[in-house]
Amino acid sequence: MLTYITIGTNNFQRAANFYDAVFKVLGYVRLPAWSEDWAMWGDENNPDEGFCFCVCPPFDCQPAMPGNGTMFAFRADSASLVRRFHSTGILAGGRDEGLPGTRAAYGPDFYVAYLRDPDGHKLACVCQPYSPETDKSVKE
Asked: pTM of the predicted model, to two decimals?
C-alpha cells in the first residue's frame, strides 16, 4: 500500500544518526538518497520495490513538528529486537514513550515499545504474535 514515509527534521545529522542506529537493529540500511540533506532507509535487496522511511528538512523551510496523534510502527521478528530498538533509540538521543512489553489494550500477543525521536516524532516497534513462553531473553 505505501511506498515511503517522509518526516521532517530540524537537525538533519542528529536525525540521520538516530535512524541509522535504530534501523540497524531492525536490519535496514541507509539507501542512496537524492541529496545531502535527505536520508532513506529500507531493504538494500529490494530498494526500488520495497518500502522506504525518509528524513529531510521540510520543503517549505518552516520548522519540522511532530504530528499530534501520528505514530510510525516498525515490525520486529522478536521481542528481543523490540527491546534492542528501544534501548538503542534511547542511547541514540530518543526519549522513552513506553517501555517494552505487552499492553492490556492490545492483547497478550502484542509486544511493543515506544520512543520519541530527537525531533519528537513518535515511533513504535512491534513483535506480533508474541509468546512469553518462547521469549528466552526477557531479562536482556
From this structure: 0.88
